[in-house]
Amino acid sequence: MKLWGGRFSEDTNQLVLEYTASISFDKRLFPYDIRGSIAHARMLGQTGILAPHEARAIIDGLESLLADYEAGKLEFRLEDEDVHMNVERLLTERIGDVAKKLHTARSRNDQVALDMHLWARDAVDELLAGVKRLERALVSVAERHLDVIVPGFTHLQRAQPVLFAHHLLAYVWMLLRDERRLLALKDEIDRMPLGAAALAGTTFPIDREMVAEELGFTRLYENSMDAVSDRDYLLGLLFNCATVMTHLSRLAEEMVLWSSEEFGWIELSDAYATGSSIMPQKKNPDVPELVRGKTGRVYGHLMGLLTVLKGLPLAYNKDLQEDKEGAFDAVDTVVPALELMAGTVETMKVRRERLQHAFARDFSNATDLADYLVRKGLPFREAHEVVGRLVADALAKGTNLAGLSLEEMRARSPLIDEDAYEALDIARVVEARQSRGGTAPSAVRLQLALAKEAVEGQ
Ligand code: ARG
User: Fold this and answer.
1) Predicted ipTM?
2) Is the pLDDT reported for residue 168 higher than 80?
3) Given 24, 260, 276, 405, which residue is catalytic?
4) How many angstroms is it from 82 CA to the middle of ligand 1?
5) N or C: which terminus of the chain carries fewer CB neighbours within 10 A?
6) Assign residue 400 a region: left if phi > 0, alpha if psi is -120 to 50, beta otherwise?
7) Phi/psi at 387 (5° precision)
8) Which of 155, 277, 357, 435 is catalytic?
9) Which CATH class is domain 366-424?
């Protein structure tokens, strides 16, 4: 018997049933549906819409269903379509006809909107915890490697040397921005839709504030049509998931590069790497690769929901049921990605010895020789030209700038003296960038302190 079967005389076609049912994926809303229904029933009792003993019986029944759900003892039925009707059927089996009064002054349209708000609120908390976990991992690795210098790139061509800590901290700032966006999203989710009923409100004297308060909301949807058709907060959730994945994917890509023998900056811990079934020597960065790869599905879910919403007339349409799988999958993809990236970062070994030789034959100190000439009075554009010629000289000779003799240097500019070699020293090159936010150890120490404060204080 269908809960809405009154006006129907034929059974639903099996394929239609399977096509329209959502229980296979919305069953995870069960605990939220119960919480929302308890708040609704309590309000119906307090406002006199239901008799106190009726509300009590319903609430007790819902609580016992929740206990059975947590014990894995409930069975959902496809014929009941979705989680809401499964709950109502289970409740009716348990407490009898009084259960049929629960749906007074309510529709599945505002009910599902409430469930998704409650779920999304928890999902944001999980994302926030994951972001924080990765921030802390990056901060701790940065802190332990303040002395390690790596090549910095533009166009993936060596540009200027930077502290490895400086490079890692760049990701911490991205994640701190993610955190702030997630907190703003939490504020958006804080609006209670129940009481909108199907779309127009209800004829019963409900108390929406009471329900909101019990469920921890501080605001109400002030338009019943908006309440049942708004999915902006899920777009926000998906956008946040997509942005976090963008950051994870960039870090993942770098870790793939860094762990290659060509870079040789890091070695992944055995616990966070995988092998090859044919090549015995391999240690593959599967986790960062999958994080990079799974970014695609998260972007897809954002695009998917945008497309579902585009052109939907008000108010509820069944299309809106399509909001769920993508949102669930996005959160289920991002949360473990954050945890795994934190573990991968925390356990990787930084190959200090190998990095010490990273600058043996490179030109990432060229800007510093130009700056040296500027300090001697040459306009920067001319200094750039002089050093460019010196780079060409060194390349022709198979060496780098420090490998040129003083005569060879002076042949390009008489302003160059012995002290130019000091300016070319890689540690000096890094140390010299003391501008706020720059890569000098002193500046990075300040940055680290600020990042830690932001991570622990936000
Ligand atoms: N399973 C539905 C969904 O997720 C619940 C709302 C159904 N409402 C309706 N009028 N058919 O959107």
Assistant:
1) 0.97
2) yes
3) 276
4) 8
5) N
6) beta
7) -65, -35
8) 155
9) mainly alpha
